[in-house]
Design a protein that fits this description.
With about 180 residues, the protein is an alpha/beta fold. The chain has a single domain, classed as Rossmann fold, CATH 3.40.50. It contains six helices and five strands. Strands 2-1-3-4-5 form a five-stranded parallel sheet, with helices on both faces. Strand 3, helix 4 and strand 4 form a beta-alpha-beta unit. Helix 1 packs parallel to helix 6. The radius of gyration is 15 Å and the shape is globular. About 40% of the residues are buried. The model has no long low-confidence stretch (mean pLDDT about 95).
């Protein structure tokens, strides 16, 4: 049994990327894994100010919701990020969380397998490339892990547009195979 942390970074109710995250989580549960689905909606996440205190103390100077999220990520075997694509990039709240998890850099971590789920109004195969590249920058800082899969669903704009889309089943199957 693996510990799987799924992070939905969309703040919108009825989010298409969160629907993928939920299906990934359900697939991982169906495979017998322990799953924690974290949504950033209603979370307090301050911007990193670059003070680098976390590099000497192992903790951020801000007391918000990030330490609990970071603990879940550090102790997971598998981490799955789900984000809508805005202007051909990951959501700002995803990037803010990644920046704030700088305190993890000097800590030991369990995660080895990283997955990315993305959605966008645009449908071109190249649409999520920058979001994947941005996440790869984070992955590259943790040499024992790698990107194991990326699922993109284009052509979804309004909340719940993804309903009935085949990509939901693909997300479930991806989660089931972690």
């Amino acid at each position: 049994m693996k510990k799987v942390t799924v992070i939905s970074t969309s703040l919108r109710p009825g989010s298409n990327s969160e629907a993928l995250a939920e299906q990934f989580a359900e697939g991982a549960k169906a495979a017998g894994h322990q799953v924690e689905l974290i949504t950033l909606r209603n979370k307090q996440i301050r911007f990193c100010i670059g003070c680098l205190s976390c590099q000497t103390t192992g903790a951020c100077v801000f007391k918000d919701d990030v330490p609990a999220i970071m603990e879940s990520v550090i102790n997971a075997d598998v981490v799955c990020w789900a984000t809508p694509i805005y202007y051909y990039e990951m959501s700002g709240q995803m990037k803010t969380l990644i920046d704030r998890m700088n305190a993890m850099y000097s800590k030991d971590y369990r995660f080895r397998d990283i997955y990315l789920l993305t959605t966008a109004a645009e449908e071109e195969d190249t649409t999520p490339a920058r979001a994947e590249s941005g996440l790869q920058g984070w992955i590259d800082c943790y040499e024992r892990c790698s990107l194991k899969g990326h699922l993109f669903c284009g052509g979804v704009t309004a909340p719940r547009d993804i309903a009935g889309n085949d990509k939901l089943a693909e997300a479930f199957n991806m989660g089931k195979q972690v």
